[in-house]
Automatic annotation (TrEMBL):
<feature type="repeat" description="WD">
    <location>
        <begin position="274"/>
        <end position="316"/>
    </location>
</feature>
<feature type="compositionally biased region" description="Acidic residues">
    <location>
        <begin position="135"/>
        <end position="157"/>
    </location>
</feature>
<dbReference type="InterPro" id="IPR019775">
    <property type="entry name" value="WD40_repeat_CS"/>
</dbReference>
<dbReference type="GO" id="GO:0005730">
    <property type="term" value="C:nucleolus"/>
</dbReference>
<feature type="region of interest" description="Disordered">
    <location>
        <begin position="114"/>
        <end position="158"/>
    </location>
</feature>
<dbReference type="Pfam" id="PF12265">
    <property type="entry name" value="CAF1C_H4-bd"/>
</dbReference>
<feature type="compositionally biased region" description="Basic residues">
    <location>
        <begin position="1"/>
        <end position="13"/>
    </location>
</feature>
<feature type="domain" description="Histone-binding protein RBBP4-like N-terminal">
    <location>
        <begin position="43"/>
        <end position="107"/>
    </location>
</feature>
<dbReference type="InterPro" id="IPR001680">
    <property type="entry name" value="WD40_rpt"/>
</dbReference>
<dbReference type="InterPro" id="IPR020472">
    <property type="entry name" value="WD40_PAC1"/>
</dbReference>
<dbReference type="InterPro" id="IPR036322">
    <property type="entry name" value="WD40_repeat_dom_sf"/>
</dbReference>
<keyword id="KW-0677">Repeat</keyword>
<comment type="similarity">
    <text>Belongs to the WD repeat RBAP46/RBAP48/MSI1 family.</text>
</comment>
<dbReference type="InterPro" id="IPR022052">
    <property type="entry name" value="Histone-bd_RBBP4-like_N"/>
</dbReference>
<dbReference type="InterPro" id="IPR015943">
    <property type="entry name" value="WD40/YVTN_repeat-like_dom_sf"/>
</dbReference>
<keyword id="KW-0539">Nucleus</keyword>
<dbReference type="InterPro" id="IPR051972">
    <property type="entry name" value="Glutamate-rich_WD_repeat"/>
</dbReference>
């Protein structure tokens, strides 16, 4: 995030800055700007486009505060641009009857101009090194890349949103797609209902659609939910089992958790309530390896581990945060690791093998507001990402450690050294969205992330992830 003087009107919004960078001010020694720091009159925040391989934004006609990325038929892992991806999102409309599930395809998500130029220069450098020829100057390399810059920019701007809308009564607090059957999605509504939907028809239309259909943005389809269960109050916690196909768990604001078992004829049997939390259940996560085990997070400040074979009490419990525990994520590569985020702004990582001792193996403090989502990277076991009420998305790598001597040696004289209170595990920061609520890694496209906020979606891949 670069701060510049002059030329900007007071109050102008920052242009999606990706990460803490140096402060540019010729009157004083450079310093790192962190979210929450003051921006003086006449200064504006700008982002460095070279920090992204791709960056695109799009929005629905209502805010969407929860979404999920659908597994698709296009292969994994994949990295070649342009990309196509599928998502499902739920709206928070001005009236209950105006809400809908948005089934989406994003096509033509291209490499950014800056990234294309960087890759071309790297390729030229590799070719020169292979030939042992150092005669070409950096200026020649840059001029060569400029010849294709216009085409690269056009490619980066071709991302298109294809959409089908399914009517939904009530604002959607959370939506999740079944990993084994991506066309099956569950929604948690502010009407206290959890509903399961079959979106296969809508996804089939989107797969075959070459260009966004005229009029599709305005048309809302009426579809009957496959199953509906009414809790005693509304809620947010919702998760499908990655091991047992069709098994679902939902938790509400009255501390009740229900496990759904698939039944014949596309229905579900909803079991009796699991009780143990003393306040609202905010998040649920099934074990990535054990089909009967799941974790829960609560406003009562605890994280609990449950086994479906014992409903009367949780198997393990830990006082995880100093305030509400909002979100949890179970590491699917290192399956004894669980991450949690709370109202205290902290990200904590737990070793489930030592949960009874109660000490987190990592306690990372960066966000200046409640943590609103957390998710482990599906392609790198030590990496995870968080979003916060401070409108920041942070990418973390637990394998990173600070080396002050190396930092001082590598930093130019005019560069800013990281402050002592900046966690060395902080790898990247993306910002520029308002009221950021949720993020997800794409399970099949390496390094690609999507975040949602009150003002829409951002789709991006950092250069260093």
């Amino acid at each position: 995030m670069v701060r510049k003087k002059g030329g900007a009107k007071k109050g102008k919004a920052p242009a999606r800055p990706p990460k803490p960078q140096q402060v540019v001010d010729t009157t004083q020694k450079p310093a790192v700007w962190l979210p929450g720091d003051a921006v003086e009159e006449g200064e504006t925040l700008q982002y460095d486009p070279t920090a992204y391989d791709c960056l695109s934004s799009m929005s629905l006609d209502w805010p969407s505060l929860s979404f999920d990325i659908l597994r698709d038929h296009l292969g994994a892992p994949r990295s070649a641009f342009p990309h196509t991806l599928f998502m499902v999102a739920g709206t928070q409309a001005g009236s209950a009857k105006s809400n809908y599930l948005a089934v989406m395809k994003v096509s033509g998500l291209g490499l950014s101009k800056a990234a294309a130029e960087r890759q071309k220069q790297q390729q030229q450098q590799r070719e020169r090194q292979h030939k042992g020829d150092d005669s070409d100057s950096d200026e020649d390399m840059i001029q060569g890349s400029d010849a294709e810059s216009d085409a690269d920019e056009e490619e980066a701007e071709t991302a298109q949103l294809h959409i089908r809308k399914v009517a939904h009564t009530g604002g959607i607090n959370r939506v999740r797609s079944c990993p084994q059957q991506p066309h099956v999605a569950a929604s948690w509504a502010d009407t206290a209902q959890v509903q399961v939907w079959d979106l296969g028809e809508q996804l089939g239309e989107l797969r075959d659609e070459a260009a966004p259909a005229a009029g599709a943005q305005g048309k809302v389809h009426r579809v009957n939910a496959r199953h509906v269960h009414t809790h005693s109050s509304e809620g947010y916690a919702l998760d499908w089992s990655p091991v047992a196909s069709g098994r679902l768990a939902s938790g509400d604001c009255r501390a009740r958790i229900h496990v759904w078992e698939p039944a014949p004829a596309g229905k579900w049997v909803v079991g009796p309530a699991y009780r143990g939390h003393e306040s609202s259940v905010e998040d649920l996560q099934w074990s990535p390896t054990e089909e009967t085990v799941f974790a829960s997070a609560s406003v009562d400040k605890t994280v609990r581990i449950w086994d479906t074979r014992e409903q009367s009490k949780s198997m393990l419990s830990v006082a995880a945060h100093d305030s509400d525990v909002n979100v949890i994520s179970w590491n699917r590569a290192t399956t004894y690791m669980l991450a949690s985020g709370g109202d205290d702004g902290a990200l904590r990582v737990w070793d489930l093998r030592a949960l009874r001792e109660g000490g987190a193996v990592a306690n990372l403090c960066y966000h200046r507001g409640p943590v609103t989502s957390v998710e482990w990277c599906p392609h790198e076991a030590s990496m995870l990402a968080t979003t916060g009420a401070d409108n920041q998305l942070a990418v973390w790598d637990l394998a990173l450690e600070r080396d002050p001597e190396e930092e001082a040696a590598l930093a130019p004289e005019t560069n800013a050294l990281a402050p002592d209170n900046l966690p060395p595990q902080l790898l990247f920061v993306h910002s520029g969205q308002h009221d950021m609520k949720e993020m997800h890694w794409h399970p099949q496209i390496t390094g690609l992330m999507v975040s949602t906020a009150a003002d829409g979606f951002n789709l991006f891949k950092p250069y260093n992830v």
